[in-house]
Design brief:
296 residues, mainly alpha, two-stranded antiparallel ribbon, 11 helices, 41% helix, Inositol oxygenase, EC 1.13.99.1
């Protein structure tokens, strides 16, 4: 019987967030391009233009009303039932339409992230599992959700668009919330320093997986849940925006998210983990923290 990895090699698939191609945040200005993929914009490059279209579609359609609709749809957790392991494997049947240049399946990235965390934090098994599952919310794409509403960077809705959002405020020119006085001011529908927990964030795999873990009574610690919930909120944790809305608790969350993200984004390498050999360890962690058949 072919191993899982052999089957991936015969049918290579991947799901790479298009946001990895362009990050305008100050935190990445001095980093070499080859360390962080390619953030340049080239009108003549069809792949980069496809990435741009993904974001412009996202930024045109993601409104306060749409986020509320997606939450209503997905937070019933009535779409399918599956173990976490089976969902991880299922995800690799999905090919990202904006995948730039790799044929490594998402599960390789998941294990690369988890194993690097395991190397640096050998005693924190909850952190290892967090690295493995952090992108698992992308299974929404199997149930009619367009990829612009699944992958990519996230941002608050209901207030003025931050300059550090990928492609900038100009990419929201066709979004009706841009012209709604309830939503287009500095604070919009929020109060000063109300905290991240009180912000409505653009719908994506982050919020879905966070809510999934709560719904299925995961035993992961709070810091793991927040790492997952906000790991794509780059305008906040890398761009430095929205500090007028965050509070003291969010400063602690920020440290957790930054610690996680250094493993998430840039652990891709030529070395492919021995997934077959690693599964027993991670199956043990799944059984410990998110056991059995879950509701998705």
């Amino acid at each position: 019987m072919a191993t899982i990895l052999q089957s991936f090699q015969k049918n290579p698939v991947s799901m790479i967030d298009p946001s990895q191609l362009l990050r305008p945040e100050p935190a990445f200005i001095d980093k070499p391009l080859d360390a962080f993929r390619d953030y340049s914009v080239d009108d003549n490059d069809p792949i980069k233009e496809r990435v741009r279209r993904t974001y412009y579609t996202m930024h045109t359609n993601v409104t306060v009303d749409l986020v509320k609709q997606k939450r209503e749809k997905w937070l019933k957790f009535n779409h399918f039932k599956s173990t976490v392991k089976d969902a991880l494997i299922k995800l690799n049947e999905l090919v990202d339409e904006s995948d730039p240049d790799t044929d490594l399946p998402n599960i390789v990235h998941a294990f690369q992230t988890a194993e690097r965390i395991r190397q640096d934090h050998p005693d924190d098994d909850w952190f290892h599992l967090t690295g493995l599952i952090h992108d698992l919310g992308k299974v929404m794409a199997f149930y009619g959700e367009p990829q612009w509403c699944v992958v990519g960077d996230t941002f608050p809705v209901g207030c003025k668009w931050a300059d550090s959002i990928v492609y900038g405020p100009e990419s929201f020119k066709d979004n009706p919330d841009t012209y709604n006085p309830k939503y287009n001011t500095k604070y919009g529908m929020y109060k000063p320093h109300c905290g991240l927990d009180n912000l409505l964030i653009s719908w994506s795999h982050d919020e879905y997986l966070y809510q999934f873990l709560l719904h299925n009574k995961s035993k992961l610690p709070e810091k793991a849940l927040y790492m997952i919930r906000y790991h794509s909120l780059y305008p906040w944790h890398a761009g430095g925006d929205y500090r007028h809305l965050t509070n003291e608790k969010d400063e602690q969350i920020l440290q957790w998210v930054l610690e996680f993200n250094k493993y998430d984004l840039y652990t891709k390498s030529e070395k492919v983990p021995d997934i077959e050999a690693l599964w027993p360890y991670y199956e043990g962690l799944i059984e410990k923290y998110i056991p059995g058949v879950c509701e998705w």
